[in-house]
């Protein structure tokens, strides 16, 4: 439930123009990438959702900050 709640916080739709503006002018990644980037680098997510090693949501090399 934690991961679903995390992803739902960032749920949203952009028009093509709004997305382009966000990418060019924004300081943060678009919501989709904030979710995918965070969760695909989280070993607990891969374990909870049984993502095979090497799949898009469980790459063999992860970015670990802490």
UniProtKB/TrEMBL annotation:
Biological process according to GO: protein processing
Ranges annotated as spanning the membrane: none
Every Peptidase M13 C-terminal domain range: 1-63
SUPFAM superfamilies tied to this protein: Metalloproteases ('zincins'), catalytic domain
Molecular function GO labels: metalloendopeptidase activity
Pfam families in alphabetical order: Peptidase_M13
Gene Ontology cellular-component terms listed: plasma membrane
InterPro entries per UniProt: MetalloPept_cat_dom_sf, Peptidase_M13, Peptidase_M13_C
Matches recorded under PANTHER family: PHOSPHATE-REGULATING NEUTRAL ENDOPEPTIDASE PHEX, ZINC METALLOPROTEASE FAMILY M13 NEPRILYSIN-RELATED
Protein name per the record: Peptidase M13 C-terminal domain-containing protein
Native source organism of the sequence: Cardiocondyla obscurior
Lineage per the UniProt record: Eukaryota, Metazoa, Ecdysozoa, Arthropoda, Hexapoda
